[in-house]
Amino acid sequence: MEGDEPDYGLEFLLAFDGRVHHLEQGYWIKFAIKRVKAVTQQPHGLSYSFTLHAPDGRRLVGFDNAHKVPAAGSRFRPRPDATDHWHRAEHDQGRPYEFKDAETLIDDFFNEVERVLRERGVGTAVVGVEETRRPK
């Protein structure tokens, strides 16, 4: 059966929970992802936040599902039930993100990270990795 096959992309992604990747010139990426009970706001059963930060700590890009955001296109359209969204820029309040699967999520996140770093003339090389989660 199709549903019995393991989702290797998801398992790979879950292993990143609590990691901070330090990049060139003081930029850093933080990963938080956990399995949760599937509900209307998180129908895929995940709570996640992936963020790119400037050296001073400002969030530059973020993909998360911590809160609802306005519907795309009009403030009068109803908000989507799912809380998946992304922040394309530092002051962006968020725009809906259509979650497809773990692999697509991480690809979309890294595409945005690469875009922002390229605009700032910063490389994408990871110069250090920090584990922030506590051992169980």
What are the defining features of this structure?
136 residues; alpha+beta; 2 helices
- Give the end-to-end Cα distance, rounded to a whole number of Å: 32 Å
Order of SSEs, N→C? HEEEEEEHE
> Whole-number average pLDDT?
83
Multimeric status of the protein: single chain
Number of domains: 1
**Biggest sheet, open or closed, and with what strands and sense?**
7 strands, antiparallel
Q: Strand order across the biggest sheet? A: 6-5-4-3-2-1-7
Strand content: 25-35%
Helix content: 10-25%
Rounded Rg: 16 Å
What would you note in describing this structure?
This protein is an alpha+beta fold and 136 residues long. It has one domain. 18% of the residues lie in helices and 28% in strands. Strand 3 and strand 4 form a beta hairpin. The chain is globular, with a radius of gyration of 16 Å. The mean pLDDT is 83.
Q: Short summary of the structure?
A:
With 136 residues, the chain is an alpha+beta fold. It has helices at residues 8-14, 102-119, and strands at residues 19-23, 28-35, 46-53, 59-64, 85-87, 95-96, 126-131.
SSE map:
Elements: H1 8-14, E1 19-23, E2 28-35, E3 46-53, E4 59-64, E5 85-87, E6 95-96, H2 102-119, E7 126-131
Antiparallel strand pairs: 1-2, 1-7, 2-3, 3-4, 4-5, 5-6
